[in-house]
Write a structure and sequence with these properties.
This protein is of the alpha/beta class. Helices cover 40% and strands 17% of the residues. The protein is built from 13 helices and 8 strands. The protein has helices at residues 3-7, 46-51, 80-93, 106-117, 133-142, 144-149, 151-155, 161-167, 170-179, 190-200, 205-218, 274-277, 279-292, and strands at 10-16, 19-26, 31-35, 57-61, 99-104, 122-128, 235-240, 262-267. It has an 8-stranded mixed β-sheet with strand order 1-2-4-3-5-6-7-8, with helices on both faces. Helix 3 (80-93) crosses helix 4 and helix 9 (170-179) packs across helix 10. It starts with a helix and ends with a helix. The mean pLDDT is 92.
């Protein structure tokens, strides 16, 4: 589609952890790595790539399995261990010691896990609408409302059927979860939907994205004694209060997972797609947070 070129961004392929990742970047300065969620791709960060590039080197990969990145076969390649190692390889590729790490949704899961395992490689952590893994585990165990909201994760464990259903209705599916969920009607348009449909029509992309959920259930997170230990880096959590799949209750007492410098900002009249609905405010919060502990 030539999307990076159309929008003025740089596009390349990077070899990390035995695979090739497609990476879009813009700007110069301190590095910010931004990890997208499901069902997105690097385009999730199109506003950030433009609006933050005056001060920062913004790097937005297609995570493994998505869009133009490699799509290894099977479930085990999509374990959290591999996803974390992809980020580690990306940081090493650019030759920097530490980065500002940002994650939304599934990208948030990977970002939390990376911060737990490799706090020395990040300056700080910014999370958009994604609970800490322990908070999510407790919610699924104790909160019937969250279990009901998370029904789709169990459905995705079924072989082949989710791929068949979603592949036959991709335009409708993306209109429903973006246009149908967003509280700001001008945040997305028909052209945006087309980009998402085309990215998921790439061979193997839909199955690979669902294998993230299958690997999470069948393999689980890497074993680490740091799982419940506070992350010793500043953490900013931004949360759209009208999220249909992740309840705000999971953010209660979130500061117990942070060793220092924790901040949480809730966005009213905002869905799960916070970076699309309020990009200027999201980026302003990020910059203020980053500058506060330079």
């Amino acid at each position: 589609m030539g999307l990076p070129e159309d929008l003025g961004f740089r596009s390349s392929r990077v070899l990390v952890n035995g695979i090739s990742l497609h990476v879009v970047e813009n700007g110069s300065g301190p590095m910010v790595i931004m990890l997208h969620g499901w069902p997105e791709f690097w385009y999730s960060w199109k506003h950030a790539l433009s609006q933050l590039s005056g001060q920062y080197h913004v790097v937005a990969p297609d995570m493994r399995g998505y869009n133009l990145s490699d799509k290894p076969e099977g479930i085990s390649p999509y374990s959290l261990k591999n996803l974390v190692n992809d980020v580690l390889g990306l940081i090493d590729h650019f030759g920097v010691d530490q980065v500002h790490l940002v994650g939304h949704d599934w990208g948030g899961i990977v970002a939390w896990q990376f911060a737990i395992q490799h706090p020395d490689r990040i300056k700080d952590l910014v999370i958009l609408n994604c609970p800490h893994p322990e908070a999510f585990r407790q919610a699924l165990k104790k909160d019937i409302r969250q279990r009901m909201k998370s029904w789709y994760m169990l459905f995705f464990q079924v072989p082949a059927l989710p791929e068949f259903i979603l592949s036959s209705s991709l335009p409708f599916f993306f209109r429903r979860i973006f246009l149908g969920w967003m509280r700001q009607p001008d945040a997305f348009n028909a052209e945006d939907i087309l980009h998402y449909v085309q990215s998921y029509r790439k061979p193997g992309a839909l199955k690979a994205s669902l294998n993230y959920y299958r690997a999470l259930f069948s393999i689980g997170p890497p074993r680490t004694d740091r799982f419940r230990v506070p992350i010793p880096k500043p953490i900013l959590v931004l949360w759209g209060l009208d999220d249909k799949v992740l309840g705000h209750s999971m953010t209660r007492d979130m500061d117990r997972f942070a060793g220092k410098g924790f901040r949480q900002v809730d966005f009213k009249n905002c869905s799960h797609w916070i970076q699309h609905e309020y990009p200027e405010r999201v980026h302003a919060e990020m910059i203020t947070f980053w500058e506060s502990h330079q």
